[in-house]
Amino acid sequence: MFNKKTVADLDVKGKKVFVRVDFNVPTKDGIVGDDTRIRAALPTIQYLVGHGAAVILASHLGRPKGGPEAKYSLKPVADHLAGLLGTVVHFASDCIGPVAEAAAKALKPGEVLVLENTRFHAEEEANDQGMAKSLASLADLYVNDAFGTAHRAHASTEGVARYLPAAAGFLLEKEIRYLGQTMEAPRRPFVAILGGAKISDKIGVIKNLLGKADQVLIGGGMANTFLKAQGYDLADSLVDGDSLELARELLNTGKGKLFLPVDVVIADKFEDGAARKTLPAGNIPAGWRVLDIGPETILAFGKIIQAAGTVVWNGPMGVFEFPNFAKGTYEVARQVAASSAVSVIGGGDSVAAIQESGLADKITHISTGGGASLEMLEGLTLPGVAALLDK
Ligand code: AMP
To answer: Domain spanning 178-377: which CATH class is it, in words?
Structure first.
């Protein structure tokens, strides 16, 4: 259950409100690409503006190396936001120090200010308390709406919450509600679909889901490691050699619940134009590699998905970047969209597949946070959420 205060519980009129948003969007030559994350933060921003708060927005963008880098500036994001809101959006070229202080001080109720990239200071990722205090000094209240970074304890996501009354924004609340409820009280059967490159990145997730879900369907490179652990020769397929023992353990605990591909599409090279063959899952000929799940697997997974009450999906079923090996991923996307189950999708690749299929509106909840949604599936508490005031 979501037991944290939200922005709706705060008296924001006439207050300066520091909002940590996730504006980590692609920008090129001063233009914002996919603005999904900016749009997702609009309900909180518009609520605050409408309730007479002065709104100070902070975010990171990209991976600067602890100092300013023009290509990671949030200025294009501030300009884009102005277009979405239809109002002036002020911009401060630093998120702490005299420039930020002057801009925050001058900000009037109903106005919006975007601060420069928090990661232009190495202290952000170190969760430096000096930086957290400097950020807190700009405002009267703190709101965290950055679900995509809520699994990180950084100065602007966790540190600052120690120095101001802190509540969740509407996006954060929605993400935690959907992901949390899915894990705690799923409509059954509860089916989890996991894919992607490696088991090692998702061990905690697989373990937790094996305890909670009724069926766990595994595709992608991850499935190769399980097949290898069963004794098959995977030839040149991507295999997580260090995780074989673990895969055997999971096969054991997951007996009857864990479903692997029954057939696979293999390629003689790691490229879209490679020669292709479909084979039953098993030994792979020398020089070949598994790049997608096969048609029988798509059918088998589809039957389970159609009978589901809840479906959670994270990670592609194959190398979907190559159109010739994208069928498994796109077919699973179609099946999840077609099912009447409560459906929750997280992770950049699965989200991209569902959006490119034009099926996003058939999904109950598409998460804006890859890493954060995985940590929710793992059953972990996110530090950026734990730091907020209890209801
Ligand atoms: P992850 O970040 O762990 O979700 O992994 C996503 C990546 O896994 C994508 O870039 C896919 O191309 C890759 N992937 C999926 N299936 C395979 C496979 N069978 N062999 C190699 N890479 C794969």
So the answer is: alpha beta
